[in-house]
Structure formats: C-alpha cells, structure tokens
Amino acid sequence: MKPVIIVSGKNGQLGKELRDIASSYSNFDFIFFDKNELNIADKSSLQNIFQKYIPAFFINCAAYTAVDKAEAEKENAYSINAEAVGNIAKQCYQYKTKLIHISTDYVFDGNGKQPYKVDDITNPVNYYGYTKLEGERLALENNADTIIIRTSWVYSKYGNNFVKTMLRLMNERSAINVVNDQLGSPTYAKDLAEAIIEIVNNQYSVNNIQSPGIYHFSNKEIISWFDFAVAVKEIKQLDCIVNPIPTSAYPTPAKRPSYSAFDTSKIAGTFNINLKNWKASLQECLAQL
Ligand SMILES: NC(=O)c1ccc[n+]([C@@H]2O[C@H](COP(=O)([O-])OP(=O)(O)OC[C@H]3O[C@@H](n4cnc5c(N)ncnc54)[C@H](OP(=O)(O)O)[C@@H]3O)[C@@H](O)[C@H]2O)c1
User: Fold this and answer.
1) In which domain, by residue range, is 102 found?
2) Domain-located, residue 252
3) Which of 35, 85, 87, 161 has most ligand 1 atoms within 8 Å of its beta carbon, as the pocket-test mutant?
4) Which of 106, 128, 155, 215 is catalytic?
5) Of 96, 115, 241, 248, which is least surrounded by CB within 10 A?
6) What are the tens digits of pLDDT across the range 153-169?
7) Atom of ligand 1 nearest to the CA of 65
C-alpha cells in the first residue's frame, strides 16, 4: 500500500499548486479535501478522516488568510488558524502521521534589520499573525514531530494575490500607487509546493531526514512591494505608471511588518532544497497569466 498524504484546503493557492504536481509522484496516494469535504475546525470530521485513511502525512494548506478581515472576525480566525491546527496535531500524534503545517512571516513585528532566523523572537503586529503564531505553538505542543514552514508574500496563477491584483489594476488604470517601505521576499506557491514534496520524499529516502521544527521558505532576495509591482509591469510590458508611496499613505485595518525577509538557510541545508530567485519564479508564473 502506498503512503497516504492528506492535503486540506485544496482550493487555495498552495492546495491547487500541490494538486498540479501530485500526479508526478505516483509513489504516494494523495487525497485532497476542500472546506466542505474537510472543515479543519470541525473536530469530528478530522477524527473521521484520520480513522478512515490513517495518513502517513497531513499537509495543512487550509487557513483563514484574510489579514484585514481577521481584525474583526477574531473568533473565526482563531478557530481555523490556531485551535484547528492544535486538533490536527493531536490526531497526527495519535496516528503517527507526519504533520506539515504552513505559517507566516507575519509572526514577526518587522523591527528586524537582518533576515529573520527560525528562532528569532516573534511578536505579531496583527491578529492574523497572532492566530498563526498560536497555531505554531499548539501544533508543536500537541505533536513535537511537526514540521512548520513559514512562508511570505505568496502568489500563484490561482486565487487572489498581489501579482494578479497588480495585473488587473495595471490593465484598468494609467497609474497606480504601491508601498515601497515594506520589505520582504515573494514566494511562488508552486516553488513552495515542490519544496513540500521534497520534504515528504526526504522522509522516505535513504537519508530518512525527519528533522521536525520550524523552517523559513521564500524565493531569494529582498524587495519592496513597489519593486514587485514594477517587475510585473516590466515582464508584462504594460504602460501603467507605478508610483512608490509610504505605508502611511495606504492605511489598512491590519498593520503589516515593515521588514519580514527570511533567512532560509535551514530549509535549504536540512532538506537539500534549491531556492529559486524571485524574478525567475515571477516570470514563470506570469507566463501562465
Ligand atoms: N497568501 C499569502 O500571502 C501567505 C503569506 C504567508 C503565509 N501564508 C500561509 O500559507 C498557507 C497557504 O496560503 P494560501 O495563500 O494558499 O491560502 P488561500 O489561497 O487563502 O487558501 C486557504 C484555503 O483554506 C480554505 N479554508 C479556510 N477555512 C477552512 C476550514 N475551516 N477548513 C478547511 N479549509 C479551509 C480556504 O477556503 P475558502 O477560500 O473557501 O475559505 C482556502 O481554499 C496558509 O497557511 C497561509 O496562512 C500565506
């Protein structure tokens, strides 16, 4: 029997990218669930799924990701990003399932000046970041064998994201304003999906690398949202003017960290993962849009 890999949140950016590449890994039996098929906040649904499939892996791509809305919908955000993750970890512990859970750069306050290492002090500046940090804590508290991958600025040809919003706005308007004082690194969800599969594969290789704990994953190099938007414009050869503005000129309900770049050396070194440059990955994604 092939090892079963359960993936929650199959209609999200990461869930869809995982679905696209899963067919290339016929040594695993991937089973994907959307919110209706498996609501991770529903304890008994979780129990039923574990009992039925006894998975070797559970990849949690489900999350409450509406950063601004989370300021008002606190209970819902906490239930999905924190409580549910604790319950998944408990089930994983009971069934000896390896949990791969996805977290965020928003666990940091952004006051750092150097790329954040996995053990740097966390201090979220918005409620979404707080719920994701609680999810990390509950995952590790209930199952010390969990692998947590923090990622940042995720985009894909799927779902709603910065790249697709920029494309739409640049086609509709002659000029747009984009903040240039928030620095970080974009993550192409397809690259993250491939890294996750690489981690899964590592557990089955002769190396048998288990290595639980927290990891950071993004594409390489540090840029601003303005740099990101300009790259979209240049690659797509659009005429729209992109103006740099400070964050203070673009108020949002949830505060964002002004710096959230990652030190990704741990994931690269532990699992032998080759991190791609952000622009090369952006080009690959835009070629499909
Ligand atoms: N997007 C980013 O920029 C970013 C940055 C850093 C970290 N991350 C993390 O990366 C991971 C993947 O993000 P993503 O961009 O792929 O997110 P996404 O596109 O928003 O996908 C999340 C998926 O989870 C589903 N979901 C929500 N509540 C659920 C529940 N109770 N049970 C089951 N499924 C549920 C959503 O369904 P509905 O849409 O129907 O609600 C959606 O399909 C998340 O953990 C996120 O926190 C994302």
Assistant:
1) 4-160+187-219+260-276
2) no
3) 35
4) 128
5) 248
6) 999 999 999 999 999 99
7) 20
